[in-house]
Design brief:
The chain is mostly helical. About 65% of the residues lie in helices and about 0% in strands. α3 crosses α5, α12 packs parallel to α14 and α16 crosses α20.
Length: about 375
């Protein structure tokens, strides 16, 4: 028998040894109700908001010196970095912004209702700007962290200020006579914060302070203003932080406080002293008896907007309201703090009062933000 015939015989035997399989029942088509329904189209307002936030996120990601980028770079080096790369663009946007929220312990960051509400505020800001009481109530409750970059720029009217950003780039190429002092103070600004323990974070802070010293040569550099810039850098890219900082200095009277003679700062402290005398006469008399001058406890409140006195979460909330209402909020918060801690303060002499740490008991109490004062 030839090899070809033998191969054919083996094939035949194999086929013969295979038992026939029973016929399969036909597969019935699934009912239409089990099919996945198509997702509804995104409404134009939400699409526009996501576009703006996506654009802001891209700026933050491209800014190697931003707080969010430093945190994201560190997370990319973790063992789970491959899993995080599969997150959708919208989830990724929320996740990256939540890093800053975690640093600030911002309880408002993950509320879906607030997301929807602040989406309307950001998209229709001119309409909300006319409804001052409504806008004030929303801001006092706290701006969600992922909306702060846009909201802060809208509140101080500096959104899309390309001319100021162009000046910023030009200032970075020049030298400032204040550079030595700025470098000395940069290392002392939020020294425990993760962002400013890095070289990149300190460089961003130095750049903003240096650029402003060239922008406003009369003021130059004022010790303490770095803390305001630091709070801004924790929230937005470097160029945007410079624009908002410049607006704060120019339009919110901070530059008047920071002038070499600091006359306006003295005037603000005197006004606060008069308010304490009027509202808290017993505490005022105690301060006078102990020679505890207003400048001993309030100068940093005005110069840093409480950034050196409060935890970051509270500093962000103060900045929210400050950008809407200006310096009035500093007086209101100061009076609320002194009233809250009046009994404790009156138990100490001058040296003892210097060690008392004053914090609001409840920042969500409307009275804390809306205490009426006459300045």
């Amino acid at each position: 028998m030839s090899s070809e015939d033998q191969s054919q015989l083996e094939t035949t035997n194999i086929v013969a040894n295979v038992e026939p399989q029973p016929a399969m029942d036909p597969v019935e088509p699934q009912p239409a109700t089990d099919l996945v329904e198509p997702q509804p189209a995104m409404d134009p307002e939400e699409a526009e908001l996501l576009r703006k936030l996506d654009s802001m996120n891209r700026l933050i990601e491209e800014d190697k010196r931003s707080a969010q980028n430093i945190l994201l770079l560190r997370s990319d080096n973790s063992p789970n970095s491959n899993e995080s790369s599969n997150i959708s663009r919208r989830d990724s946007m929320k996740s990256s912004n939540s890093d800053i929220s975690n640093l600030a312990n911002d309880e408002h960051a993950n509320s879906e209702e607030e997301w929807a509400l602040w989406k309307k505020v950001v998209i229709n800001y001119p309409q909300y700007q006319k409804q001052k009481l409504v806008l004030a109530d929303l801001v006092r409750k706290g701006i969600p962290s992922h909306f702060r970059p846009l909201a802060w720029q809208l509140l101080c009217d500096v959104k899309d200020n390309d001319a100021l950003k162009t000046k910023y780039v030009e200032f970075l190429r020049r030298q400032s006579p204040c550079e030595k002092v700025i470098k000395r103070d940069v290392a002392r600004t939020f020294p425990e914060h993760e962002l400013f323990r890095s070289t990149q974070g300190q460089e961003s802070l130095f750049n903003i302070m240096k650029a402003y010293s060239l922008y406003d040569r009369e003021v130059g550099y004022c010790q303490g203003s770095g803390f305001i810039s630091g709070v801004l850098l924790m929230t937005m890219p470097e160029e945007d932080a410079f624009c908002v900082f410049t607006k704060i200095m120019q339009d919110y009277k901070l530059r008047e406080m920071c002038k070499p003679n600091m006359y306006f700062l003295g005037q603000c402290m005197y006004q606060l002293e008069c308010l304490v005398e009027e509202s808290l006469p017993e505490l005022y008399n105690h301060f006078c008896q102990q020679a505890f001058h207003t400048s001993m406890y309030s100068s940093s409140w005005f110069l840093t907007l409480f950034a050196t006195s409060f935890p970051l979460s509270l500093s962000l909330r103060v900045m929210d309201v400050f950008l809407l209402e200006g310096l009035d909020i500093i007086f209101r918060v100061a009076l609320s703090l002194l009233e809250t801690h009046q009994d404790e303060l009156m138990m100490h002499d001058m040296e003892g009062m210097k060690t008392v740490r004053v914090f609001p008991l409840s920042i969500d109490d409307p009275i804390f933000w809306s205490k009426q004062v006459s300045i």
